[in-house]
Amino acid sequence: MENHPLQKAMLKKLASDYGTPLYIYDAYKIKQQIETFRKAFSEIDMRLFYAMKANSNLSILKWMKHLGTGVDTVSANEVALALRAGFRPENIVFTPNMVNFDEIKQAVKAGVFINIENLSNLEKLGKAYGKSVPCFIRINPLLDDMPWENDVEAWHKQSKFGIALQQFDRVHDLVNRYGIPVIGLHLHASHVIMSREVFLRGAQIVFELAKEFSGVKYLDFGGGLRPEEPDNPKVFDVFALAEAFREKFYQFRQETGRKLQLWFEPGRFLIRQAGYLLVRTEVIKNNGIVDFTGVNSGFNHLIRPMLYGSWHNIINISNPAGEKKKYNVVGNLCEIDNFAIGRTLNEVREGDLLLVENAGAYGFSMSSHYNSRFKPAEVMIVNDKPFLIRKRDTLDDLLRNQIEINF
Ligand code: LLP
User: Is 135 marked active-site?
Assistant: First the structure.
C-alpha cells in the first residue's frame, strides 16, 4: 500500500475531505498510458481519439485535450460536450450506432468527422450532402474464414455494428451515385476480442479494402485494447500490436504509394487503471454461510461486476496488516449487488475504507440514481494535488426534471 500510486494517507484524507463513495482519478496514470500508446506506435503516423463514453467528465476531457488527444464521440450530446471541453471539430470523430439521420446532421453542422455504419444513413448522407461532406465507413469484417472460436464468435454476435463486407457492392454504388468522398475506413474490434490474431485479421481486411477507395487517407481501428493486467495473461501487448501494424502500414505504402494515417479510439486503455472507487464498509455480517462486507456503494456506481462479471482488485486501506479473510463484498442496493464474491481481503471492520481498483473506465459513466442514491463525487489528482471535478449529488439532482402531480 505504501507503494500504491495513491498513498494510503492521501486516500484517507480524500475520504474525510470529500466523503465516500468517491471516484478518484490519477491524471499522471492517464498521461503514462497515452505516452505508452504513442511510444508503441512512434514509427507510424498515428492519432489517438479518446473514447469519451468510458468517462466523460469535463475535466478528464480537458486533460486528454491538454495531452493532445482527439476524442471519439457516439452521440450528438457527446459531440456537444467535447466541443464544450474545448476540442476543435477536426479533433472529434462521431461514431454513432443506429442513430436517426438528424443526429448525423447535427454532427455535420458541428464540423466533426463523420463515421457511417449502415447503408440507410449512407444513402441519406449522399442525398443530403452529395460531394460536400466526407465520411468514414465502418466495416463489419465477418471473419467467416476463421475458426469460430470465442473471439470471432463474439465479433459476429455484436454485428449490429458496421456494414458487412459482403455489402460493399452497395457501398460502392451509393458512393458513386452521390459522389460521397470516403476519406476513412473504420473497424472496432471491442475488448471482448482477446486475441491479437483476430484483431490483426480484421485490420488486414481494412488495409485491403482501403485499396478499393482511392480517397481514403485514414484507417481507424477503434478501441477495445486492454491495458496490461498482471492477472490476465491473454491481454496482448500494445508494442507487439504496434509492430504488426507497422508492417501493414509500410507494406500498404509500398504497394500503393499512398500514405495513410492510422487512428485509434481507446477508452479503457487510457483511463481504466487511472480510476478508483473509494468506498466505506458500513456493515459486517455473516448469514451463517458467508461473511459479507457491506459497503456504501453498489452497482448504481460501478455496474461492471454485475453486468459483465468484471474483476476489480479491492484493497482494505484501513487495515493493511489485518489477517486475510474471505468476503463477499456487496453494495447496499435492495437486490443482489456484488462487487466481489469470495474475495480475500485483510480483515475488514465496520468503517474500513476499501479501494476498488481499475474503475476509471465505464464506472461513473454507467452510474445511475437507482434506489434514489446519490452518484459519487469525483476527484482528480493532478501533480499530487486533489481537485474536485464533480460534486456529490443532492436531493435536488434526484428531483430535477420531475413534474409533480398533486392529488
Ligand atoms: N470505439 C468504438 C466505436 C466503440 O464502440 C468503443 C467502445 C470504443 C472505441 C472504446 O472501447 P474501449 O477502448 O474502451 O474498449 N461498457 C463496457 C464497454 C463497452 C464498449 C463499447 N464501445 C465495459 O464496461 O466494459
Answer: no
